[in-house]
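Note to self: keep these together.
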Amino acid sequence: MATSSFAVPTYLALTDSHGKYTPTNISTSTYSVVTRAVSGLRWFDPYRADLSALTLLSTPPLSSQLSSTSALLFVIGTNSIRSNPASVVVSDIKRVIDSVRTAHPHLSSKHSINIVCCFPCLKPIYPFNTTHSLLHNIHEYNCSLFDLAETLNFTVLNFDVTPSHLGYDRMHLHHNYQNLVPDSINNYFAYLSSIPATLPFKAVGRSSEAVTRRNHQRHIKRTTQQQQHVLKRQVSSPWRLDTIKTFLQEQHIKFAKLPPIYRNIIRIQFNNADDLQAADRVLSQAVFS
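Structure:
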C-alpha cells in the first residue's frame, strides 16, 4: 500500500533590518518559513525600488515565492513611519495588500496576510523632530493598523517590543534581544500551522473580533502612554529589580511597569504625567545608588 504524504505549508516573512537575525530558511515537520530581510525596507519608496515592499513583491523571485505561500508576514514600518505621517504609511499598506491579493487571490483569508505593529523608536528625524512626536506617530500608525485590518481582513500582531529592548542607536534591538524577532516569527507560524485550514469562521465572529481589536488598540495606547512617561534613576548594587519593585510599593509609588535594568539605569514607566511627577518628588536622583 502506498504511503500517503502531504505538503507542509510554506510561509514567507518580509522584514526590514529588525529581522536580520532570522534564518533565511526554516523547515519543520509541519511547516517551512522563508525569510527575506532587507535593511532599510519601507512599505513604499518612490526613489529606491530595492527598498520598496510594493515593488519588491512584484519582482519575479518574490512573486514566484508568493504563488506557493500559504501566509505572508510583514515586519516593516520603522523606516516608513520615521519620515511619513501615519495616514500616508497606512495608505501605502493598503496599496501593498491590494496588489498582493490581486496577483495572488489565494492570500485572501484573515491569516494569509499578517502585519507586525511598529516597534518603538527613540531616534527622531524630520519631520518628527522630537521623541514625543515620533512615538505619537507610531501610536497613530499602530492604532490605524487595526482599523485597516478590519476593513481589509488581515491580522495584526504585536511582538511586545518596548524601549528597554532598544540598543545604543535607539532604533534597533540590543544584541541581548537579537532572538526576539526570529523567535516571535517562528512561534507565530508554528501556531498558524496548527490551525485547520478548513475551519470556517463563525458568522457571529465579527463581534468577538471587534472586541479583540478594541482590546489591542487599548493595549497599544496604554503602552505608548507608558513609554512617554518614564523616570530614570541610576542603580547600583545591591539594588535589583525585585527589591526596587518592593521599595516603590512601600513608598506607594503608582508605577505602571518596570522594564529590566539596562546599563545600570532603571526606567520606571507610568500611566500619566501626574504619577510620574509625584514619583519624581519622592525619589531622589541617588535613591538607588
